[in-house]
Design brief:
Blueprint (H helix, E strand, L loop, with lengths): L19 H12 L8 H5 L9 H24 L6 H13 L4 E2 H7 L7 H11 L2 E5 L7 E5 L1 H21 L5 H18 L1
Antiparallel strand pairs: 1-3, 2-3
Length: about 190
């Protein structure tokens, strides 16, 4: 018969009332650390060891949250037979109005990088949501415009999409939302 393994406490980890928490708590007191419990991120990642640093935990949390948010948004748009990138393009083109934009200008304004904008626009043109025209004076210049069908799709999506986004953040304090914006701005500034 196998003998149960001894539970060895990890500093700063799972110190919340188990028999191992006594040893963990004493070790943490010696190091001046506050007892913590396993974070929801550690549980989601099935991680049994503490994060190397707070910065690593924040980094992984941002990546995991972005992944889960991306999945939820993909699932939201699926019944409308449109992708989040296509929706983003339609909003960009609606915003510029009759001027339209070339492929590279659309790419620069996208929320998430789209590796093959030409194919994305091809699919959208085939669906009837956008139209493309070559410039008379420079045949290399192709501008893309939103069509009436694209505008109608955006109008259909406007209210349900706003409600979807509101549900994602319901129960979150405005001050917390502003703090997330501030930190994200700081990160993007360092990356650019």
């Amino acid at each position: 018969m196998r003998q149960p393994r001894e539970v060895v406490p990890i500093p700063g980890w799972n110190c919340g009332g188990s028999p191992a928490s006594i040893g963990c708590s004493n070790e943490m007191k010696e190091k001046g650390m506050a007892p913590t419990t396993k974070s929801s991120l550690a549980s989601a990642l099935k991680q049994n060891r503490p994060f190397v640093s707070l910065e690593q935990q924040v980094y992984l949390s941002i990546l995991r949250t972005a992944s889960e948010l991306s999945y939820a948004v993909d699932q939201y748009f699926r019944p409308f037979d449109i992708t989040p990138s296509q929706y983003n393009v339609l909003r960009i083109l609606r915003g510029v109005g009759a001027d339209g934009l070339c492929r590279n200008e659309i790419s620069e304004r996208m929320v998430t990088a789209t590796p093959d904008m030409s194919r994305l626009l091809d699919r959208m043109e085939k669906a009837g949501w956008v139209r493309r025209e070559r410039a008379e004076d420079d045949r290399r210049q192709v501008s893309t415009y939103i069509t009436k069908s694209g505008m109608e799709l955006l109008e259909t999506l406007e209210t349900p999409t706003r409600d979807f986004v509101m549900r994602l953040f319901s129960g979150t304090r405005v001050s917390d939302l502003k703090a997330v914006l501030k930190v994200n701005d700081q990160i993007r500034t360092k990356l650019s």
